[in-house]
């Protein structure tokens, strides 16, 4: 099993049902020393606005999100779901949990 930290779209129950065919349960956590940056991604019907995690010079910058425990199979589904504007990296959350997160590519 893998830990996945979500700060955006993957927290949506609708997205979870479409992607995993189930609703995930997770717990609140935080990523310190990072901030969110606006990002435009080309989709089927034009450009869409999203946010992406980037490192910050200010260690007090915090991103609030949810950490989910998912299978390797589900993690592979997320890899396909996230565009090539993101890369998957390991981070240590405020709780001490080591988790995957999708950051700016």
Automatic annotation (TrEMBL):
| CDD domains xrefs | GGCT_like
Domain named Gamma-glutamylcyclotransferase AIG2-like: residues: 4-103
Q: Which Gene3D superfamilies match?
A: Gamma-glutamyl cyclotransferase-like
| Any Pfam family matching the protein | GGACT
Task: Write down the InterPro entries for this protein, in alphabetical order.
Answer: AIG2-like_dom (IPR009288), GGCT-like (IPR013024), GGCT-like_sf (IPR036568)
Protein name (Swiss-Prot/TrEMBL): Gamma-glutamylcyclotransferase AIG2-like domain-containing protein
- State the organism named in the record: Flavobacterium reichenbachii
